[in-house]
């Protein structure tokens, strides 16, 4: 009869019944450091691990990398890796850990430019995904990690680390080329009711000082709420007041809504509120002539009607997405 403790040890790093296949992230920084120390004497495996936990590439994309693409890279450089059939690019940012791992690798190995960066010991081909999957399981088992680990562990560790460091889920989703933040949330097993710590760094809005911008504020909120906060603060800023004044002057205080033409003074019940409205958001938060060109003047009734139109509802998150892209991506 098989030894029960032996069976239990074999199963420690394999998925439990009904669990997800592919492996979860390494969530403890001390465990990450322990595996790096374990791999210290093997430059190839060390580079594979370090690069894997520092970028969004899947293992199968990591294994396609060529040595020549990384031979003379500089720290701070960004390497673009085309994603097959999608017209998008993976980004590998050469940070200090990756740069040092590359230096150690090229000091020991002298591969040709067209050779795989992670070459198999069996010839001029890269390691296969199944072998990497087994390698990661063995590393985690040797250092006593409990749970399911495998080929997805490196990439998920990168995403989990970004989340732990308060990077917004919207940004992580974009780096992973996921269709939505919800997909990323599920992929990283982030609970549905968990908010996201969104660090709003000091935001200097192009064309002005943005007096209402927040410095080192952390909001506990869902991404959409954080985006709305950014926009609402701008609408209260001195820069937006300047835009509104210029738009009012351009249209001589007349609503530009279809068949409206109302002014502040000729409403049925007295003074009418006129609002500067973004027809498009390509230049929002610039507080200059480009942004004013994107705006028209509407009375409150026409403005509310415009925002109730389906195409405008689809645009609502767009202004905040553009701001996020400029500040954080």
Describe this structure in words.
- With 329 residues, the chain is mainly alpha-helical.
- It has three domains: 4-187, Orthogonal Bundle (hpI Integrase, Chain A), CATH 1.10.443; 196-231; 238-328, no CATH class.
- Helices cover 43% and strands 10% of the residues.
- It contains 15 helices and six strands.
- The strands form three sheets. Strands 1-2 form a two-stranded antiparallel sheet. A two-stranded antiparallel ribbon has the order 3-4.
- The protein is elongated, with a radius of gyration of 26 Å.
- The model is unreliable at 1-21, 195-223 and 311-329 (pLDDT under 50).
Give short descriptive properties of this protein.
329 residues, mainly alpha, hpI Integrase, Chain A, two-stranded antiparallel ribbon, elongated, disordered N terminus
Task: Detail the topology: elements first, then pairings.
Layout: H1 4-11, H2 29-38, H3 43-52, H4 59-62, E1 78-83, E2 88-93, H5 96-108, H6 129-142, H7 153-164, H8 169-175, H9 181-187, E3 196-200, E4 217-221, H10 223-235, H11 238-250, E5 274-278, H12 289-293, E6 295-299, H13 300-308, H14 310-315, H15 318-328
Antiparallel strand pairs: 1-2, 3-4, 5-6
Helix pairs in contact: 3-5, 8-9, 10-15
Number of strands: 6
Strand order of the largest sheet: 1-2
Shape: elongated
Element string (H = helix, E = strand): HHHHEEHHHHHEEHHEHEHHH
What is the CATH topology assignment of the largest domain? Answer: hpI Integrase, Chain A
The residue-averaged pLDDT reads 76
Find the CATH superfamily of the largest domain.
Intergrase catalytic core
As a percent range, the share of helical residues equals 40-55%
Low-confidence runs of at least 5 consecutive residues: 1-21, 195-223, 311-329
> What is the SS-derived class?
mainly alpha
Q: How would you sum up the major sheet?
A: 2 strands, antiparallel
Q: What's the CATH C level of the largest domain? A: Mainly Alpha
CATH architecture of the largest domain: Orthogonal Bundle
From the N-terminal CA to the C-terminal CA, the straight-line distance is 57 Å
Radius of gyration: 26 Å
Task: Give the DSSP E fraction (strand runs of 2 or more residues).
Answer: 5-15%
Count of all domains: 3
Count of alpha/pi helices: 15
């Amino acid at each position: 009869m098989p030894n029960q403790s032996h069976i239990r040890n074999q199963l420690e790093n394999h998925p439990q019944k009904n669990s997800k296949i592919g492996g979860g992230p390494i969530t403890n920084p001390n465990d990450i450091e322990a595996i790096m120390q374990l791999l210290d004497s093997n430059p190839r495996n060390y580079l594979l691990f370090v690069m894997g936990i520092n970028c969004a590439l899947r293992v199968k994309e990591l294994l396609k990398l060529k040595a020549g693409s990384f031979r003379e890279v500089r720290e701070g450089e960004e390497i673009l890796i085309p994603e097959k059939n999608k017209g998008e690019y993976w980004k590998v940012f050469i940070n200090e850990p990756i740069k040092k791992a590359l230096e150690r690798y090229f000091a020991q190995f002298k591969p040709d430019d067209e050779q795989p960066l992670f070459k198999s010991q069996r010839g001029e081909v890269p390691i296969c995904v199944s072998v990497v999957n087994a390698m990661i399981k063995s590393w985690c088992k040797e250092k006593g990690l409990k749970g399911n680990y495998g080929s997805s562990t490196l990439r998920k560790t990168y995403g989990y680390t970004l989340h732990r460091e308060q990077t917004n889920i919207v940004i992580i989703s974009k780096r992973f080329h996921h269709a939505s933040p919800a997909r990323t949330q599920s992929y990283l097993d982030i609970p549905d009711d968990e908010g996201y710590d969104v660090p709003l760094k000091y935001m200097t809005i192009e064309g002005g000082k943005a007096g209402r911008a927040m410095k080192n504020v952390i909001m506990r909120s869902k991404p959409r709420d954080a985006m709305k906060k950014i926009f609402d603060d701008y609408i209260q800023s001195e820069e937006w007041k300047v835009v509104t004044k210029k738009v009012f002057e351009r249209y001589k205080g007349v609503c530009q809504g279809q068949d409206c033409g109302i002014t502040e003074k000729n409403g049925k019940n007295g003074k009418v509120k006129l609002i500067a409205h973004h027809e498009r958001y390509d230049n929002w938060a610039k507080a200059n002539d480009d942004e004013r060109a994107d705006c028209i003047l509407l009375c409150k009734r026409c403005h509310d009607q415009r925002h109730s139109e389906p195409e405008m509802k689809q645009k609502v998150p767009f202004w905040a997405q553009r701001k996020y892209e400029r500040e954080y991506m």
